[in-house]
Amino acid sequence: MSELREHIRASLSNEALQIALDANTERRLRGRALAFESIPDWRERRQRAHTIRADVIEHLDEYLNQFIERNQENGVIVHCAKDEAEAVRIILQIAKNAPLRDPAEQKILVAKSKSMVSEEINLNHALEAEGIRVVETDLGEYIIQLRNEKPAHIITPAVHLRRNDVGQLFHEKLGIPYTEDIPTLTNTARKVLREVFLTADIGISGVNFGIIENGAICIVTNEGNGRMVTTLPQTYIALMGMERLLHTLDDLALMLSLLPRSATTQKLSVYTQLLRKPPADQTRHLVILDNGRTQLRNSPLKESLYCIRCGACLNACPVFREIGGHAYVGRDGSIAPYPGPIGSVVSPGLLGENFVHLAQASSLCGACKDACPVDIDLPRMLTRVRAGQAPDLQWRGDKGKGGAGLSWMAKTVLKLYSRVARSPRLFTISQKFAALGSHILAPSSSWIRLPAATGWGYSKDFPQFAGKTFRERYKDSSKQTKRYSGKQENSYPDNQIEKNRGVKIPAEDLVAQFTRELSVLGGKVYEIANVTEEVIQFLRARGIYKIHLEPNVLDESLLKSAGIDFTYKPDPSILVGVTKALCGLADTGSILEAEGTGYSLQASLLPEIHIAVLHKSSILPSLPDAMPLVKETNRAVFITGPSRTSDIEMSLTIGVHGPGEIIVFLV
After folding, report:
1. 263-295 pLDDT, tens per residue?
2. 68-72 contacts: CB < 8 A, separation 24 or more?
3. Which residues touch 519 (CB under 8 Å, ≥6 apart)?
4. What is the pLDDT of residues 481-505, one digit of tens each?
5. C-alpha distances in angstroms, 464 versus 425, 430, 431, 441, 470?
6. Above pLDDT 90, what percent of the chain?
7. How far apart are CA 150 and CA 321, in angstroms?
8. Is residue 653 within 8 Å of 644, Cβ to Cβ?
């Protein structure tokens, strides 16, 4: 564990890192608590989510076959990779055979959205070794790629950096004047990466969920880069861990009520994509990765596969909050792809003994279990890793030996303690000797420190033993105890789950709630009578005379007479896109856009301003009510406010890769 200890010491002494981690913790925990207030039945939802994930993992082989079959019916090319090497080989083969956007360009360009699975298999390194240019397009991932680092957090990759770090980085790598202004830094990344999106030959992204009933994949992002890499390139590769399945769209709606609240403190992420069939001008590949998941499923650590990668356990963990993600290193010094409590189970479970000692970097306080939106018993999983029950140790016949990741000295001390603790007489005697020894060796502070042998003493100490044992103090205390009778009041009564589906809610209430929710997110809502005239007035006020228009939304003759030019085809230079929303969601302020004529999905993505026309009668109470609308849709996206990021110092910045303004005209 020497490498781990060295990294822990370095992290604790890094003042800038401590400030960054504290800021992340405070904002995430406070925001998460506020986000869950809007769903008082979250405990019941959490248990349902646990049951759903347990069923998927229990019947994974059967469900995976169904999911693959649905995707093949949808025109998706499916590949199954048993390990890292095979996944890399498959993706390299796809990349080398993909058509180039510019045949004169010799080097393949890959635009990549955030994917933890790609970190797991070291995909970027493998592609770059073959002469393929890979560009991370999530702002946080882009920053750490420029720094040649690994992500420091599952959700916020650059959580360990301050604005001055990013300012200096962009000054050196991108040639801009040094600045610490976060909107300026974000806008710089937008300009650089916009060219990558428009010229990339291949798009690669991770997958949040795969839906068995219709073969769709769900991708959840905030910045808009996920939509760019799945929409613009002619070749798109989705990389998915084999366990990321849900059976129905109703299951997905449940998970989406928990995931964004736990991950980014939002009711719903800005962009929730559902991709079923690829467009005619795109080839879509789905690479499904095992890489140890089958062995993990057949081990005592099976429950770790329920994880939906929200990162809540990292934010809650007192150890992660002090040392950060880069301190979770293997015996060979490599940084674990998955840090924190879940990473201390998954990393050794998938990648072997190199990371088994990470389970020792935990206080087992239970905060991770309390934070988990699918109620994974992480403390139990961590103790099982410590007990030598990780799959890699089982293969070597070490199951049950215990003390995985500990030094021989620590194992010896724990075995001795175990022997003493099983005997009441020996334990009582040991308490007396320990108390006497502690007062002699350290009469005013803490007990003797043994950093070289056990690691104790640098950041945590054995407390000074009490002068008397518990039994002695108990006997000395009064035997009179207060007894309480009568019915106890429950401070936390069971929540009554209101069944909204099928209940008629007045349209006026839905409109008011939708308007309120979208306005909080920075969107604007206008109730109007004549939509075309209102759009014309808006455009003239902004000095805009050309738009990307979805057909059959506005009166095109009125536009022409007003001198407003329009096109149905994507044009990156156009500032405004106008689309028709299928529906709105009152409880989140979201709108649903679906694939249609005139490149409607790109009209809501490429311009800086997105105008959506929505009928009041199409506003629905919540996400489950809208799921029937997307079951047979080839491509759809729920849009919840303008694009945004908090990747630099947790500072919210509006307008990243997608529109910085979203305006809804209610008709």
Report:
1. 999 999 999 999 999 999 999 999 999 999 999
2. 68/288, 69/215, 70/212, 70/213, 70/214, 70/215, 71/215, 71/286
3. 525, 589
4. 444 344 433 333 333 334 445 556 7
5. 21, 14, 11, 10, 14
6. 76
7. 18
8. yes
Of 610, 570, 631, nearest in space to 218 by CA: 631
Phi, psi of 297 (to 5 degrees): -65, -30
Give residue for tokens 């993990």: 296
Residue 537 contacts residue 559 (beta carbons within 8 Å): no
Identify residue 19 by its one-letter amino acid code: I
**524-527 and 546-549 strand pairing:** unpaired
Going by C-alpha positions, the residue among 549, 579, 580, 544 that lies closest to residue 563 is 544
Which own/partner contact pairs does 17-21 have at CB distance under 8 Å and 24+ positions apart?
Answer: 17/160, 17/324, 18/322, 19/162, 20/159, 20/160, 20/161, 20/162, 20/324, 20/649, 21/159, 21/160, 21/321, 21/322, 21/324
Burial class (CB in 10 A: 0-12, 13-18, 19+), 354: middle
Between 394 and 432, the more confident residue is 432
Supply 189's token pair. Answer: 């990344």
Q: What is the pLDDT of residue 402?
A: 59
Phi first, then psi: give them for residue 625, nearest 5 degrees.
-70, -25
Adjacency order of strands within the sheet including 590-594: 245-246, 209-211, 217-221, 271-275, 635-639, 590-594, 583-585, 619-620
Q: How far apart are CA 497 and CA 419, in angstroms?
A: 50
Distance in angstroms between the alpha carbons of the first and the last residue of the chain:
64
- Report the number of secondary-structure helices (H) and strands (E) in the chain: 28, 22
Q: What is the mean pLDDT of the chain?
A: 89
As a whole number of angstroms, the distance between CA 392 and CA 394 comes to: 5
Quick one: which of 72, 159, 160, 151 has its CA closest to 118?
A: 151
Distance, CA of 133 to CA of 70 (rounded, Å): 32
User: Measuring CA to CA, which residue among 247, 326, 323, 239 is closest to residue 288?
Assistant: 239
SS3 content of the chain, % helix, strand, coil (to 5): 45, 15, 40
